[in-house]
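pinging the channel bc i need a second pair of eyes. not urgent but kinda urgent?? the chain im working w is below, pasted from the shared doc
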Amino acid sequence: MGNGDRPLLPFPIRRRDNSCSPITIGHTTSATLRGANRIRGRAAPGGTMAELNPNQRNYYYHFEAGRAGIHKSILAALYAVHRAPEFADGEFGLGLTASDRVPASELDTFPKQAQIAANVIRSLTRRLLAQGWQRSEVWDGTQRRYSDRFVGAIAEGYTPAADDPISAVLAPTNTLPLLEAYVNDIAATYDGSLLPQNLVYLDKPLLLLLERITRYYTGLTSQREALLEGVRIWRQLHTRTEAIQSLGRAETGDTDALDQALLTFVKNANRYYSGYPHQRESTLRIAQLWRGLRSREAAIASLEKDTPSELDFQIVDSALKDFVASIPELYERTGEQRHALMEGFRLWRQLDSRSASLAALGISADPFEGGLKPEAVMAIAQQLDEKLLDFVASVPLAFQSYESQRDGLLRMLQIWRGLDSREATLQSLFADLKEMQQQAEDPFQQKLSPNFRLWELIQSSTADRLNIDNTPNATEIERLRQLAQQILQPAHDALGPLKITSGFRSEALNQAVGGVPNSDHRLGYAVDLVPLATGTRTLAKWIHDNRSFDQLILEFGSLVNPNWIHVSINPRNRRQVLWATRQNGRTVYRPVTL
């Protein structure tokens, strides 16, 4: 059973073999929560917890209500009317006793009773809705609380189904005292360490959050998990797996399809939000996880400030620094690239003109305004390039996440990539992040060039059939990257899609296919390929005329139409052009001219 199938109980589940395992809530383990319980409670002599004060109980009510997507005050009301069972530490429960699936040992403290009571309210809500109750019969939108009828249903008590692993038996009580306690808690005022009871004022920023998410969602794992947790609470489900299934997706399915389903959920949530506790808690949880905050309280504080953007600037800044780090290797001293660096420098330093930027860089004249001899232009341009690269090298250490610095780097990236707007630049940046994340999760998915991934250059039906590991080491991957960037990508851009029929070969694979020990395939320098939009002879001619290479072999077939092309970039750079043919059962290589 995977983590997504575990009941959401923040304490150990006693297994049939009498062993225990901590259960996870989001990223919080039961051990963490038990540690928090010890901090919040006052330890009595002998290690038992003394009776909690109202503010400490309120902390548990808030935590469990947020987890389960219920109204917090109903937990306080259950405690007020039941105050049973009584525990050795002087505390009381919320009226719960053991069920078939939840033993008494999981109900023997106040925190455990609060946890299970929240599950009971959620399970009861689902049962009543399945029986035909309307949402409006559960939640009174005009009074912004549970309806009198629903409170009456709670007062009747609850016995969970035999297959319910997270709910216990709730004792019945009188409706009027329960309703009175519930209404009184809604109006209660606690000290400043606790949150306001009425969170309706958060509805506006929560709706703004949902609107922004549809613009800024880029499929990062942290974003996806935030929305899945929101789905779980909104739909009052127990597990992540159930949340995914409720979206009509499989847990191991296409993440792009799951992302689309999640965005549809967000759009519908924005449309149908009505202030129900499970809706508000769902959106609060999304806010907490999306913004990387430590607690529900921090999420509320963030929403009170009405943060104007759902951009995670820490992630943006990290991606920008990664881009800047790649510039020295990619800089080809073109006018567009030079302009990108100049604009980035100008905004970084908050200068008002290109002339001011040149002066700040120590350049006495603009080399491109005319009136200078060509050799002077070249000398000044070279000097300018060195100054700009010095600036680029200083960015990682000098970057302090100031807005002017971020704006400068975003503008630099926008011009560098020829993008139309800041929004497009951010989307480009997030696409980079998603690509990096996918590579971290599956190294074989890493891009060697815009149109070629590592797996394409290492796949082998022979390796699959013989169960041979064909994984290259770091040096071999770097050679394959050079091959993709120097040969494959330019040929793709000029002639259209290419199919790699053979690429890297590990030592074991090279022996299995009868390759020579020093084969360029073995070292990561060579590929065999065919073009999908033109002829093999045309591909060979284009490589010969436009790229540097070591060997270019027209493999079998005819000189006009070889079966496939072999190309390598071994540093010997011999520019050999050969035609491979079969003679008397042997492969013969003959020099040819293209």
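so The CA atoms of residues 232 and 243 lie 5 Å apart. and The two ends are 61 Å apart (CA to CA). — does that match what u expected or am i reading it wrong
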